[in-house]
What does this fold into?
Amino acid sequence: MKGSKSETELLLQFSNHLKSFRTQKSLSQGQLANQTGITRQAISAIESNLYLPTTVIALRLASVLNCRVEDLFSLTPHEDSLEGILIGHLPSRTSSTSPVRVKVSTIGKRTIVRPVTDLGEQLSFAVPADGYITDASSKLFGSTVRVRLSRDREAIQQEISVAGCDPSIFLVGEHLRRHKDRTTVIGWTMGSMAALQALQRGEVHVAGMHLFDPVTGESNMPFLRRSLKGSGYDVVTFATWEEGFLVRRGNPKSIRTAADLAEPLVALVNREAGSGARLLLDQRLHAAEVQPGQVQGYDRIVSSHFEVARAIAERQADVGIGIQSAAQLFDLDFIPLQTARYDLVVPKPYLKSHPTLAHLFETLVSRPFRNEIEALGGYDTSETGKAQTLRTS
It folds into this structure.
């Protein structure tokens, strides 16, 4: 008998071990049919996945074969997959046959795939994958890859991808999920200009920035006006924070100003070009008439505020530019240099097309979230959620 479309789809997901159990008992199809009271043709159809047994027949078969129904029959999980554009870096020691854990984001009309390892050594073990690249051979940046999904598509479509260097961005996701929906917020750590470029390339939904312009006294807006064309972006303040020198407890090298970095016994750990921390350092070195070549460790680069703090706490360096909350986390002293605003930049079309992106900005202004990041230390949320005016040419 020809089955319906839904029955056919179910058969494709049906795991059937009847023949294996029958042969283990040394029973022919006819013998099993006689003992269960059905026809041999029915046994043959069931074993060939042409017919789904009723509950009664399944129970009879399990009784005769002295096993459980679920030993004979079960539904195999439906395997969903999709194709996307690979960005980031595959683990260097990944073989072509080893599955690669990835995060998947729907950015506008594109699907972006990025290895979980790009989140860093700790988060790559704490953040679950959205799926796996099962064939990593010859997969280069920008190539199309197929991902076997480990989460349902609706959850993946709600995921919000943020580029920037604020470590508390994951807390937004926790508060969002607690009060709104299943949305996951993933923060890809990179400097301000790199985050903005990632946004312009369509690799993330949101870019975080903290670039202070000493000429105008403004944060971010002068840089955004030069970099962005048109008025298709919203700029919303995340928080204001303190930036300064991170040094070991007690400040054993007596570091107070940028001029002290030229001392031969002082070792710096630096951030990448384009980051807010690097811009602040270079501005202060220039004002102090100190050349980068005079600073030991100027070329030693790490990619986050936490990495700067960790290097100093582990005595691999004496000083670096970072935020106050990173100093507190690693029990370091903090020497403030300036107050800067951390803004989030988002293309306006994403706010309309993404199912939950607008909820992110609603969560920012909630009192529970603002209380939490203020408790981290060094954050001022008095302007959190404020829209900044972006006038571009």
Q: What stands out?
A: The mean pLDDT is 89. The radius of gyration is 29 Å. The longest helix spans residues 276-287. Residues 269 and 320 are 5 Å apart (CA to CA).
